[in-house]
């Protein structure tokens, strides 16, 4: 069976592979959306912290003998603590300034992190093996789906929608949203708003590190691995709507699939299709697909 001259199994295969890429986009854009939506900071360091999560996972395995599952927990926690330090020592002083200051500061943090690891390990990629329990592939009839890639999709969906539920449907999320809009009122109820903001930033960058550990067995780890990813992820956030949690999740998954299909029908455009969609969305709906129009 064919669709537009393309065998249906090939289309279904590309759909699943696109969903894997979309899972990474969703995870990274979710962290960006949490930080921008609740802290009003454009965190350009997100790609570098994605890289840092992957590098820490590799270092934990090579230097400390820790396995994948241990680093899947420890690397995001470590990066989250680093994020807390960054917020406490640098970001907290620029919240009331123009967005440009946050962008420049986090861009500088990116250059420092990438420069440190590039000077130590160079720019060549480092391999990172998937755990044995997730090795091999499953026959779906139309393709062999690598078990690790299936795990990436499942883990990403669980983390993304759990985060959305906590922020949008729980009392903690209500305090977070209220704290960014009217901090003095929330503090009157006994809530430590500065600490809440600090933990929010730490959680947002921990999501980036979690995505980095998930990506480590799929793409080779290098100090520059976050550069190409973060540009696409910013486009995803803009398309979904700056600060929209659900918009980032759904748009990330959708654009991964669109990118996958583009590789089948018009491979030359696969690297730019996301940005073409961004331009069209901004022309028709400047606030993004799920953003609130002012």
Automatic annotation (TrEMBL):
<feature type="transmembrane region" description="Helical">
    <location>
        <begin position="66"/>
        <end position="86"/>
    </location>
</feature>
<keyword id="KW-0813">Transport</keyword>
<comment type="similarity">
    <text>Belongs to the binding-protein-dependent transport system permease family. LivHM subfamily.</text>
</comment>
<feature type="transmembrane region" description="Helical">
    <location>
        <begin position="148"/>
        <end position="167"/>
    </location>
</feature>
<feature type="transmembrane region" description="Helical">
    <location>
        <begin position="98"/>
        <end position="117"/>
    </location>
</feature>
<keyword id="KW-0029">Amino-acid transport</keyword>
<dbReference type="InterPro" id="IPR052157">
    <property type="entry name" value="BCAA_transport_permease"/>
</dbReference>
<dbReference type="GO" id="GO:0006865">
    <property type="term" value="P:amino acid transport"/>
</dbReference>
<dbReference type="InterPro" id="IPR001851">
    <property type="entry name" value="ABC_transp_permease"/>
</dbReference>
<feature type="transmembrane region" description="Helical">
    <location>
        <begin position="231"/>
        <end position="258"/>
    </location>
</feature>
<dbReference type="Pfam" id="PF02653">
    <property type="entry name" value="BPD_transp_2"/>
</dbReference>
<keyword id="KW-0472">Membrane</keyword>
<protein>
    <submittedName>
        <fullName>ABC transporter permease</fullName>
    </submittedName>
</protein>
<feature type="transmembrane region" description="Helical">
    <location>
        <begin position="264"/>
        <end position="284"/>
    </location>
</feature>
<feature type="transmembrane region" description="Helical">
    <location>
        <begin position="195"/>
        <end position="219"/>
    </location>
</feature>
<dbReference type="GO" id="GO:0005886">
    <property type="term" value="C:plasma membrane"/>
</dbReference>
<keyword id="KW-1133">Transmembrane helix</keyword>
<keyword id="KW-1003">Cell membrane</keyword>
<keyword id="KW-0812">Transmembrane</keyword>
<feature type="transmembrane region" description="Helical">
    <location>
        <begin position="32"/>
        <end position="59"/>
    </location>
</feature>
<dbReference type="GO" id="GO:0022857">
    <property type="term" value="F:transmembrane transporter activity"/>
</dbReference>
């Amino acid at each position: 069976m064919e669709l537009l001259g393309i065998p249906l199994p090939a289309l279904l295969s590309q759909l699943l592979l696109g969903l894997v890429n979309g899972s990474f986009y969703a995870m990274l854009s979710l962290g960006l959306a949490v930080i921008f939506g609740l802290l009003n900071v454009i965190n350009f360091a997100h790609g570098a912290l994605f890289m840092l999560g992957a590098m820490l996972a590799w270092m934990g395995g090579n230097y400390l003998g820790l396995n994948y599952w241990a680093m899947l927990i420890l690397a995001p926690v470590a990066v989250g603590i680093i994020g807390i330090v960054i917020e406490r020592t640098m970001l907290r002083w620029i919240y009331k300034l123009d967005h440009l200051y946050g962008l420049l500061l986090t861009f500088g943090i990116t250059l420092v992190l990438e420069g440190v690891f590039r000077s130590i390990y160079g720019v060549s990629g480092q391999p990172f093996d998937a755990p044995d329990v997730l090795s091999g592939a499953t026959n779906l009839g139309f393709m062999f789906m690598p078990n690790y890639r299936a795990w990436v999709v499942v883990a990403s969906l669980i983390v993304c929608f759990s985060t959305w539920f906590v922020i949008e449907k729980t009392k903690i999320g209500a305090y977070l949203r209220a704290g960014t809009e009217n901090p003095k009122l929330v503090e009157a109820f006994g809530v430590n708003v500065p600490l809440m903001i600090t933990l929010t930033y730490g959680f947002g960058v921990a999501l980036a590190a979690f995505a980095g550990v998930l990506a480590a067995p799929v793409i080779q780890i290098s100090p520059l691995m976050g550069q190409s990813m973060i540009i696409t992820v910013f486009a995803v956030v803009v398309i979904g709507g700056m600060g929209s949690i659900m918009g980032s999740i759904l748009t990330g998954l959708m654009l991964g699939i669109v990118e996958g299909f583009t590789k089948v029908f018009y491979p030359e455009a696969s690297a730019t299709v996301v940005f073409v969609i961004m331009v069209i969305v901004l022309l028709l709906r400047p606030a993004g697909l799920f953003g609130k129009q002012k």
